[in-house]
Structure formats: C-alpha cells, structure tokens
Design brief:
single chain, mainly alpha, Pyruvate-ferredoxin Oxidoreductase, domain 3, 3 domains, three-stranded parallel β-sheet, two-stranded antiparallel sheet, 18 helices, 5 strands, 56% helix, 5% strand
Length: 389
C-alpha cells in the first residue's frame, strides 16, 4: 500500500526496492520471502511481525519437516535491525482475547499504529472499518488490543495465562484405548467390523501375557496401528465425517452471517491426473454436502461387490494391507518371547510410517514396506539362529 497526502504524490503502484517504510507481516515465513525482504532497508523500514507461522505445503510432502519460523524472524531482524522491528504472537492473542485468529490482521495494524509507524489517524482507521461494514466492533476491538500489545506487552501477555489450563491425566489403559477405537469403528462401519478389531487385539494381549514379557507395548502398538489400517479414509468416511452434526456445529460457530462451504476434492472416479499420474484436487460447491449425506448412508457397501469406490488400486491396497499386517502379527505371536519382544514391537509399529493420502500415502507406503520386509527378515533369521543354537 502506498500512502500520500494526495493522489498526485503517488506515481507508482508498487513499493520500490529498499523503499518500504512499513511491513506488516502476519506470517514470518511469508514476510521473510525474497520479494518482501528486498523492499526492506535498515534505518528506513519498520516491521510489525506476528511470530506465529502456519505450516506450509512442505509439511504434507515431508514428514520430518520443521517449521523455519524462528529462523525467518531472525533473518528479518538482521535486515532491519533491532530498533526497526516489533514482534509478538498476534495469533495467540487474537485467539485468546477475541476468540478467533481471524482478527490477527487488525490487531497487527493496531500494533504498528501504536508504534507510530502508520501515518494515519486513529479516527480514520476506525472509520474505514465502519465503512467496510464487516464485523466492525470486533475489528475495532482487535485494533485496540494491538495498540495495547505495543504499549504494554507484559500486561497483555499476562492476560493469556488464565487460558493455559494444565490438566494431568492418568495414562489411558489398554482397555480404554481399545474401547474408544471399537466405538469409532462401529460408527465407521458396524459393530461386527469393530468386534473383529477387538478380538484380534485381545489375541495379541493374551499371547503377550503367555510369553511372560513385561508390559503391554506390543498390545498397545497393535491396538493403535491395526485401528489406523482398519479406519482408512475412503469416500464413505470422508462423507461421514463432513456430515457429522458436531462438525457442522463447530463450523457454524466460527462464522457469522450467510457463508458457504466449498470443498477441495480429488474423487478417484472423476478427478484428472497430472503428468505424474497423480490425482488433482478441484473445488466443489456447497451442493457436495447433499451428496455427502447420501454417501455416508451407503457405508455398508464398503468392501462388497457393490462398492464402486473399492475397485480402485488404492482401496484394494488399503484392504489388503489390513490382512498383511494381521498375518505378520500372527507370525510374530507364534515365536514371541522376551528375547524378540522389542523386535516384535518395532514391527507392530510399522504403520506409523504410512502417512498422508493418495499419492503421498503411496510414497510413504513404499518406504514402509521396505522397512517392514527388512524387520520381518531379521525376525525370521533370529528365530532360525535360535533354533540351531
């Protein structure tokens, strides 16, 4: 944005290189981008920065991704100098004091204004909010909180403390862990499906007890990971979750007025593929919710001859994976003892490596299969050596 006493003083539509007087950064990763940094200059540019950062798309592609927000903050501070920068977690303040992080932007504006970096009067800024006629009082309040944060951050920070509730919970028992997942799988498919899960986990538990090992690490690993495989997120489950009344109520509580929901989906029977053969998402309108409601009621078709979605390579692979995992655990249980117990637990945790959806999940699955085969190979070799000895 360019500001001048009159229109005649503005001769360009963009801020020139090293010519920015103020940068209001609502995300450190974006603010530290090359195009933005090139417009900063020590001694001239001031930066009002929200230090909270939203994960980028790299988080989806790289399971070991680490948020570079702090490094970005340090880079910006180095460019404009300590005196040229003011930073705080506006996202946390907006969420705690306003109930929604959507008010981060007007809060950052108030912060910059209080610092003396915005050449406009308070009255003109508040009047602009009135003319905009969207959540006027909330935006005004957010602006004022931003002013307070710039004037007395310690006082504002103190207001955040009551929200930090520390709750000590007793570690969930294996029975509780199983019961919660049985309840979920009953809603996911039906009671019979859920009971097959319970029966298998209890079988592992009994084998673990018979082996005389200490603890229930194997049972817990199987309880978590068999559930993960059995509750694979197919079209029926996406529909069920999106039509869950509790979910829709949460959405309604976060927005005001007449709003519409849009969905970004890649239906395997409809979506186009890129040059790598990967399904591409596209935007669908609110009418999709009606389709979701119908689809959610058809979950009983899952895995049957009438399941048209279940014929895709991805769905067949997901169903086969459940059986493969159970077969591996069955093999382990036959030879389970205190010596190979740790190796058995490691094998049982293999599904933890399978993350994401679609082609992302397929990539992780390929890597997991290599690790799985290696672990099973070593487990079998150890048993052979033990028998010979």
């Amino acid at each position: 944005m360019l500001i001048g006493a009159s229109q005649d003083e503005i001769h360009t539509t963009r801020v020139g290189m090293a010519a920015a007087d103020l940068v209001i950064g609502c995300d450190p990763i974006v603010t530290a981008g090359k195009e933005t940094v090139l417009r900063m200059r020590a001694g001239r540019t001031h930066v009002a920065l929200n230090v909270h950062s939203t994960p980028t798309a790299a988080f989806v592609k790289n399971a070991n991704w680490e948020n570079p927000a702090q490094a970005c903050v340090a880079e910006i501070r180095q460019v404009v100098g300590e005196s040229g920068m003011g930073a705080f977690d506006a996202d946390a303040v907006a969420t705690r004091l306003m109930g929604d992080s959507i008010y981060t932007n007007p809060m950052m504006l108030g912060y910059a204004w209080q610092k003396g970096w915005v050449p406009l009067s308070r009255a003109s800024i508040l009047r602009a909010m009135e003319l905009n006629a969207v959540a006027v009082e909330q935006n005004k309040a957010a602006f004022e909180w931003g002013c307070h944060a710039a004037h007395d951050w310690a006082a504002v920070e103190g207001l955040l403390a009551p929200a930090q509730i520390v709750e000590f919970r007793k570690r969930e028992s294996l029975d509780g862990l199983i019961d919660r997942r049985v309840a979920f799988l009953t809603g996911y498919q039906n009671a019979a499906y859920a009971e097959t899960y319970r029966a298998f986990v209890l079988k592992v538990r009994h084998a673990e007890e018979a082996a005389g090992v200490t603890g229930q690490r194997l049972s817990e690993a199987v309880a978590r990971n068999l559930f993960k495989l059995m509750a694979y997120k197919d079209e029926y489950e996406v529909a069920r979750l999106h039509t869950d009344p509790a979910f829709l109520d949460r959405i309604a509580s976060q927005f005001e007025g007449d709003f519409k929901l849009h969905y970004h989906l890649a239906p395997p029977l409809l979506a186009k593929k890129n040059n790598k053969g990967e399904l591409q998402k596209r935007k669908y309108g609110p009418a999709v919710l009606t389709g979701f409601r119908v689809l959610a009621r058809l979950k009983g078709l899952r895995g049957t001859a009438l399941d048209i979605f279940g014929r895709t390579v991805e769905r067949r692979s997901e169903r086969a994976l459940i059986a493969e995992y159970q077969a591996s655990i069955e093999e382990i249980l036959k030879a389970l003892d205190a010596v190979n117990y740790a190796a058995a637990v490691e094998i049982a945790r293999i599904p933890e490596q399978i993350k994401g959806f679609g082609h992302v999940k397929e990539r992780h699955l390929q890597a997991a299969r290599l690790a799985w085969a290696d672990l099973m190979g070593r487990f079998r070799s150890a048993q052979t050596v033990q028998k010979v000895a």
